[in-house]
Design a protein that fits this description.
Blueprint lengths: L5 E6 L7 H11 L8 E4 L5 H10 L2 E6 L4 H7 L2 E2 L1 H6 L4 E5 L2 E5 L2 H8 L2 H8 L3 E5 L3 H12 L3 E5 L3 H11 L4 E2 L5 H4 L5 E4 L23 E4 L8 H8 L3 E3 L2 H16 L7 H8 L2
Parallel strand pairs: 1-2, 1-3, 4-6, 7-8, 7-10, 8-9, 10-11, 11-12
Antiparallel strand pairs: 3-5, 5-6
Helix pairs in contact: 1-11, 5-7, 5-11
Bound molecules: NADP nicotinamide-adenine-dinucleotide phosphate.
Length: 275
């Protein structure tokens, strides 16, 4: 019998991750010969050392979360085109002695969106991306793939300019103090910063100026209704949290490792709702 496959998620911190619930649900459902998917916390200083140890231990693959996606990109020996474009890796695979890097957040974000949202709020529209970290890179690429123009706005301007330069897509960078000059023209607003986790406030957008047809997305899924989304709800705007994206990016990583593309289901959503 073949040795059981080892997979997990690595981050710092990683306690908040619900990826083990999703992967272990599918491992059981599809009767994969695999150990339970684990959480691995590692200080960025020891990232390479720890990943090499896991590789030597016979690990097949790792999801990579905050703040290690850019380090994982540099560490991987071969990358998919989308990982090269985003310069961020959320899926590492160890195969034939080599380290492969992919970014499934891009397709995960795209698949999380309803057709109507894409048609009405993204295609040929101005989209605001709050943040300029690993997730912003994936979201800006996805919006561009769907025909939108990302306007990137971040606390640290130089990070926004850096991703604009590296992504090589049609995009704009907007300084925080100038956001009010464009906000009325924006039809899709997505928060990719970590503001809103726990009790933190996200006051980046003045919702009194937002177009009444705009759609508001927050990549955060815990809490389910961030304060950012609750303002959107109060204003009767369309809104969505990051749970579907989380499931879709996980499904794509699962396919890379186990060669099965699992489907999202009400049963899985219910399991996650109860956490
Ligand atoms: P990251 O690379 O560490 O980037 C964090 C971003 O947040 C940066 O733009 C940073 O701005 C900004 N930020 C942090 N603290 C801030 C503050 N106090 N005020 C203003 N801006 C602040 O992290 P990431 O990988 O992009 O992840 C970001 C979030 O997305 C996390 O909450 C993560 O859980 C979520 N995420 C969700 C999914 C999903 O599937 N739903 C997938 C990926 C990520 P500076 O550049 O100024 O530091």
């Amino acid at each position: 019998m073949n040795e059981a496959t080892k997979t997990g998620v690595i981050g710092f911190p990683v306690d908040h991750s619900v990826s083990p619930t999703i992967h272990n649900y599918w491992i059981n459902k599809h009767q994969i010969n695999a150990d339970l998917y684990k959480k691995i916390s590692v200080d960025p200083k020891f990232f390479e050392e720890e990943v090499l140890r896991l590789k030597e231990n016979g690990t097949l693959g790792l999801n990579v979360t905050v703040p290690l996606k850019e380090l994982a990109f540099s560490f991987s020996e071969e990358q998919t085109e989308i990982a090269k474009q985003t310069r961020a890796v959320n899926t590492l695979t160890f195969k034939n002695g080599k380290v492969y890097g992919d970014n499934t957040d891009v397709i995960g974000f795209q698949r999380s969106l309803d057709k109507e949202t894409v048609e009405n709020n993204i295609a040929n529209k101005k989209c605001l991306v709050l943040g300029a970290g690993g997730a912003a890179r994936a979201v800006a690429c996805a919006l561009s793939n769907l025909g939108g123009t990302p306007f990137i706005c971040n606390r640290t301007l130089k990070n926004a300019l850096k991703i604009q330069q590296e992504l090589r897509i049609q995009s704009e960078v907007i300084e925080e103090e100038n956001l009010s000059t464009v906000i009325g023209e924006i039809s899709f607003i997505v928060n990719t910063t970590s503001l809103g986790l726990g009790d933190t406030e996200n006051n980046a957008v003045d919702f009194t100026q937002v177009n009444h047809r705009a759609f508001v997305y927050d990549l955060i899924y815990n809490p389910k209704l961030t304060k950012f989304l609750s303002v959107a709800k109060e204003k009767s705007l369309g809104y969505q949290n990051g749970m579907k994206m989380l499931i879709e990016q996980a499904a794509e990583s699962f396919k890379i490792w186990h060669n099965i593309h699992p489907k999202n289901s009400d049963e899985l959503m219910n399991v996650l709702e109860e956490l």
